[in-house]
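Collaboration report, partner site 2.

Our partner group contributed sequences for two proteins of shared interest, and the home lab folded both. The records are reproduced in the order in which they were received, starting with the first partner submission.
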Amino acid sequence: MINKQQQWAMNPQGFKMNPSSVSRYYGLILCFVILTGCTDPVVEKFEGPAQGTTYHISYWSELPVDSKDIEVSVKNELDIIDKTLSNYRPDSVIETFNSAENTNSQEVGNVIVSLVRVAQIVSKASQGCYDLSIKPLFELWGFRGDKLTIPDAPAIRKTLDQIGMEKLEVVDDSHLRKKQANLKVDLSSIAQGYSVQSISKVFEQKGITNYLVEIGGELKTQGHKPDGQAWRIAVERPLPGEQVMQKVMTMPKDLPMAVMTSGTYRHYFDDHGQRYGHILDARIGRPVLHDLVAVTVIYEDPTIADAWSTALLCLGQKEGMQAANAAKIPALFIQQQDKELIESRSDALNTLNTLTIH
């Protein structure tokens, strides 16, 4: 799977992008295209650093709103997420769980348990390619830093003994238990989707139903622009060194929708003619070698979309398409064969008539 250390590498001051990872940046970068006219009300915008990347917010409301209060609320929510899910903060909830090397039931709160439950479903659907316990493998390969370390087969086998979603038990809505004391859980492959969803809820709780929330290229839209036009999303061409538009998505105006992308083309190591991307198959402990370079999942729930985009990219085009069709996941696959990009769509995406891709 892709470790969205990729996107989610963090330090004690907050999330810090690991230059050696695939980021939801580690992947296809999604940016938003906002076309506003001289209408009233107008789109309000603000941005800032978060999770090793940046966030961009656009919203509008027919009723007066306190823009300063909204900005503070968003920053506070990001701080709470950091303190809960950061694998780079020794005092975070998830790292407190990881550091307790025992098999006792531990309280982690309902957020982490809910993310683990989503990940368990996706892991099973991917036949174990996607796995939250893959953190030791990324450390073994040197993907947590700036230098690749190619491990030998015995080291990989030994590390694989620490890996496995089946070794993590959900006790209840707020407690987890390790079945193996040295198990480590890394939520980076799902946490950015959860972050987008959490920030979206901030707006909904304040009665704002027209917004675009984007964190590191992962985003969710609700409603439309003041002039009645839909939000439009640009998808970047997934090739190293290029920053040109590959696709434009016109988002539905009457439904919330998230766009989550995982990709391989920005963060990788080259060694003796072999390219090693930060996509590890948890079943074999090695980087995948297929030609799938990006997967975009379009789904109402950003958290679910985030996990699936990671899992489908891990599986590759053939197995990933089979898994997406079986689970009815709307997904856009992009393969790179030499310099040619080949697109394919899951059945659910082909029938998703609420969204236009061109």
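Second partner submission, folded after the first:
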Amino acid sequence: MPKPPLDRGVLLLAEGDDLRLDLVTGSADAGSPCTRATRFQIASISKQMAAVAVLLLAERGALRLEDPVVRWLPDPPPAWSGITLHHLLTHTSGLGHWEEYPLIDLAGPAEPDELLAVFAGLPPLFAPGAGWHYSSPGYVLLARAVERAADRPYAAFLAEEVFAPLGMTDSFAGDAAGRDDVATGHEAGRPVPSWDLDTVSMGAGDVWCTGADLLTWLDVPRRGRLLGPAAAAVLTTPHAPTGRPGEAYGYGFFVGPLNGERAVHHSGDNGGYKALAAWYPDSDRRLVVLTNQAEIDPGLLKGALE
């Protein structure tokens, strides 16, 4: 099988439990190469971890998917009174995405409650459940709800309740300061500052993974790991049509065609990083792409699967 072009990063393709393609290439930063131990920002794939955190707490009775989000936030605006955790999970809350909040600097930093006040300053785009609009801020609110319901920091909850039980020992959420084996993001071949992952992107784009850990992560929907059967099924249920042909959103997962095949998937795009994690149920293939560059070959996905 020819290796698809990738200047820097990791590409893994598994069929069943067999690894068919294992590509590690390029540099992690100015002084070291990418290796199998290199951690990359997985950007919006992080939403899947937030969704699983919510479902774990729901299984334990610490919260309910039908809870109004205002129950779990300090001083929420009245306009959010009809928004539930389910609406946030499925992007049907009516909240905007980053482009609707031009005052927010994604590179931060920001005070948590001041960030919520910026979110609250924009009226919902539609009534809860009346439409679909991708919203990273909605997942920031979910992470705040997890913190309140679990009574511990969000990153600590992921480390102790999500990553450790799965054996994802090289994964973590939040700022990477002081950690080894982390890739520096690049745009146009030059290093760029990281987005703020402790507050601004918490729950929405804050997780770092190795390629192997992200491949393991796909066993959550594939094998029902970590969650009970009912919660695992809810995770990839097509709850809300996205407007693209045959595609819907579950909880942190897109469900629909990808490269001509039915898939459960999500991509990620933080400043200087791109990522993709996909499981193809019909062929039982799992694909992971992690790169610390903003630009990738558009034929990469197709080439990996051929």
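Feedback sent to the partner group on the second submission included the following. The chain has one domain: 9-26+44-175+185-305. The CA atoms of residues 49 and 135 lie 16 Å apart.
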